[in-house]
Amino acid sequence: MIALDYVKLYLKNIDIPRLTRLPELDFKTSVSISTGLYSNNIEAEYYHCTIKIIASRAGTSSYVEFSGSIHKMWNAIQGIKAPYYRGNRNDKGFNGNIFTLNDFNNARIHLEYLFACKADQMIFQGVEFGVNINTPFAVNSYLQGLLYHRNIEFEFNYNKNYYVAKHNYFTLKLYNKSAQYKIDDKNIFRAEIKILKTEEIKLKKVGMVTLGDINELTLKKALDMLIMRFDEVVYYDYTINPEQLKDKDKLYLNHYSNPRYWIYEVKPHHRDRPKKHLKTIIENHSENLSGQIRQLMIKCAPTHNV
After folding, report:
1. Whole-angstrom Cα distance, residue 289 to residue 119?
2. Domain ranges (residues) in the chain
C-alpha cells in the first residue's frame, strides 16, 4: 500500500528542556575541525532518525526538527531487521516490508508521546511516500528501459538497481527493492516521490500539511500523485517482439531505446509523435511491463490493515 517513508518535520511549541532530559535521547553537539568552535545546535539519533534542536538566533526562538524514515523507525522499535542483518553494527534500518496505515498511526502516537505534543504540531518541511510492489517479472527488466521523466534523463547507480529523476520541487525514484535488501525469493519494485518543497503538496491539493493530516483520503491523493508521475515516465520495453513489427517500425527501435536520442536529438516540442509511436508499439507488441506495474500500483490504495 501507499505509505509515508522519509519525513522532515518542524515541531511547533515543544518543551525543549523536557526533551533534553529524556534518557532515551543522547544529545550531542559538533565541533568545527578548522576553527575549534562548537555548534550551538544539538542533535540525537533515534531509531535511524535524527532529532535536532536548533538554537535561537536573533529574532527567533529555539525549535525542534525531526527527520528520517518513519517506516524504518517503527520497524526498529518493533525489532524488525533487514533480511541480511546478522547482528553486525552496520544496521541501516529496514523499510522493505508493508507499512500499513495502522502501523503509521501507531508510529504517530509514539512520536506524540516522545515529544509530548499533538500530531498537528508536527509540520511537514519535506516528505517522501511510495509503494513496494511484488512484480511477476525481474524488476531490472523494467528498470533497464527507463529513458526520461519530464525532460529529465534518469540517473542510475548501485549496479543499475536504482534510478532517479531530480526536479526542482520533487524527486522521482524507481528502484529494485529486493536487490537493496538482498531478498532473493521476491521481485520487489519500489516507486516513490520525495517532495523537496511543500508547495508541491499544496499545489496538487493532497492536503498534507502536518502529521495529523495523514489518513486514507490524503494517502489516496498521494497515490494518485505518484501514479500521475509514473505515467509521465518515458521508457523502452525490452520485451518488444521485433518480429511482430513492420519493417519501417523496426527501424525506429534503436533510436527509441537510446536516452540520448530523446534528450539530445529530439527537441522537447517534437517528442510527442515518437512517444505515442513507442507507446503504441509497447501496448501491442510487448509484455507492457509498465502497464503491469501501473495496475499493481492502483491496488496500493491505503487501508488500516493489509
Report:
1. 39
2. 3-27+40-239+287-298
Looking at 34-121, list the stretches that DSSP marks H as alpha helix, in order from N- to C-terminal side. 70-77, 101-115
pLDDT on residue 142: 98
What is the amino acid identity at position 54?
I
Secondary structure of residue 36 in the 3-state scheme = coil
- Spatial separation of the C-alpha atoms in residues 187 and 224, rounded to whole Å: 23
How far from each other are the two terminal CA atoms of the chain, in whole angstroms? 8
What's the 3-state SS for 170-215? EEEEEEEHHHHCCCCCCCEEEEEEEECCCHHHHHCCCCCCEHHHCC
| Stated pTM of the model | 0.91
3-state secondary structure of 216: helix
Q: Which helix (H) or strand (E) holds 297?
A: helix 289-298
Residue with cell 520495453: 237
Q: How many CB atoms lie within 10 A of CB 93?
A: 19
CA 93 from centroid of its chain's CA atoms: 15
Q: What is the pLDDT of residue 135?
A: 97
Q: What is the pLDDT of residues 28-53, one digit of tens each?
A: 998 878 887 888 899 999 999 999 99
Q: Which residues in the chain come in under a pLDDT of 70?
A: 59, 88-89, 200-204, 304-306
